[in-house]
Write a structure and sequence with these properties.
Elements lengths: L6 H7 L5 E5 L5 H16 L4 E5 L17 E2 L4 H10 L2 E5 L10 H7 L3 E6 L10 E4 L6 H11 L8 H14 L10 H12 L4 H9 L4 H14 E4 L4 E6 L1 H6 L10 H6 L6 E7 L4 E7 L5 H9 L2 E2 L3 E6 L3 H11 L4 H4 L1
Parallel strand pairs: 1-2, 1-4, 2-3, 4-5, 5-6, 8-9
Antiparallel strand pairs: 7-8, 9-10, 10-12, 11-12
Bound molecules: guanosine-5'-monophosphate and manganese (II) ion.
Length: 336
């Protein structure tokens, strides 16, 4: 693997290089915040970069500076493909495997661009030329700060960069609560506040910005849909396509729902299964020794972090629920 420090001279050596930044499908605040934070930083060193997301994302991210210029691959496939094919550099942020960017994956793979991975997920598959990767970083946004620091450019961080990066650190650490939050994370966050990020505004923009029906949907799921499997210290919520429709659920609305299960005393694993039209999407959150990523990879074509992972399936939702309840039986030792 090449040394990431070579990137800045390489970018600068190229007269107006064509740069694309992309991130995982259904981007969250870390994915979009790191992409836009990097975009604003590159602009400061005279490089124009185009952010392309594989899909749309929640309205709660639309306050981010520069968000209006993001291209959604699903809306502009031809333009996105052309930009990636012509790119000299493609930055791949907050994902470890090309399947995480859907059909954009094959286009990135075949592009002649230098590929730079900046990520904190376990086991990157290794499609990139340069890598800034560690699972020790709280978030990709924290890694973008490290990247800027490695480039010797912390002095260039302004309010736009700082706001985007702060958002991803805040959400990926669940407001500085997760074990991934280190003293360095706090130092980085403190520097971002000094550079102009407004913590209260960012918190409100992300967490106090839901529709009434989304709030009622959360209440409905918690009172009507929550199953407890006491033998496995597991909480499970299964949401049907009809329920998503009834509560007018849009992209981003189910974010955070899976965390409620883990807040119940004694629960070690919380699972959410949502019947999205294209596939059944699963989210896993665990405590202590339950390997959520391994479980998701082995049984549900997924992966992620040790205690926070996801997966998906084409099975009917009833079958998937049953298969989950069978698969969990082999993991009893990790849940007790
Ligand atoms: P979420 O449940 O919030 O969608 O995802 C939690 C974490 O699991 C994400 O940070 C991501 O790393 C991982 N993840 C979610 N879905 C998938 C998937 O389908 N495949 C893989 N490999 N990882 C996933
Ligand atoms: Mn992340």
């Amino acid at each position: 693997m090449n040394n990431i420090q070579e990137i800045k001279p390489l970018l600068k050596a190229n007269n107006s290089p064509k740069v694309v930044i992309t991130t995982h499908h259904k981007p969250d605040a870390d994915a979009l915040g790191s992409s836009l934070g990097l975009h604003h930083y590159l602009e400061k060193i005279g490089i124009k970069a185009q952010v392309i997301t594989p899909t749309d994302y929640g309205d709660f991210l639309k306050w981010m500076p520069g968000e209006g210029d993001v291209i959604n691959f699903e809306e502009k496939e031809d333009l996105s493909s052309q930009l990636v094919n012509e790119a000299d550099f493609v930055f791949c942020l907050d994902f470890n495997a090309l399947k995480r960017i859907n059909r954009l994956g094959a286009i990135v793979k075949n592009s002649r661009a230098v590929k730079i991975l900046i990520d904190h997920h376990l086991e990157p598959e290794g499609f990139e030329t340069y890598r800034l990767w560690t699972t020790k970083a709280s978030s990709t946004c924290e890694l973008i700060f490290w990247f800027i620091e490695l480039m010797g450019d912390v002095h260039l961080i302004d309010e736009a960069v700082a706001s985007c990066l702060y958002a991803g650190i805040m959400t990926d650490t669940a407001s500085f609560k997760h074990g991934s939050t280190t003293a360095t994370t706090h130092r980085v966050a403190a520097m971002l506040l000094e550079k102009g990020a407004k913590s209260n505004r960012i918190f409100e923009a992300i967490y106090d910005n839901y529709s009434e029906s989304r709030t009622r949907f959360i209440g409905f799921c918690l009172s009507e849909k929550l199953q407890i499997l006491p033998e496995y210290k597991t909480a499970l919520i299964v949401v049907s396509a009809e329920e998503l429709k009834r509560f007018k659920i849009i992209t981003g609305d189910s974010e955070g729902l899976v965390n409620y299960g883990l807040s119940i005393t004694g629960i070690k694993l919380s699972v959410l299964i949502v019947d999205r039209t294209v596939a059944r999407k699963m989210s896993f959150r665990s405590k202590d020794t339950f390997p959520a990523n391994e479980f998701a990879r082995k049984h549900f074509n997924g992966g992620g972090h040790f205690n926070a992972a996801g997966g998906e399936s084409q099975e009917a939702i009833e079958e998937l629920e049953l298969r989950f309840k069978t698969a969990i039986k082999d993991y009893k030792q990790y849940l007790n």
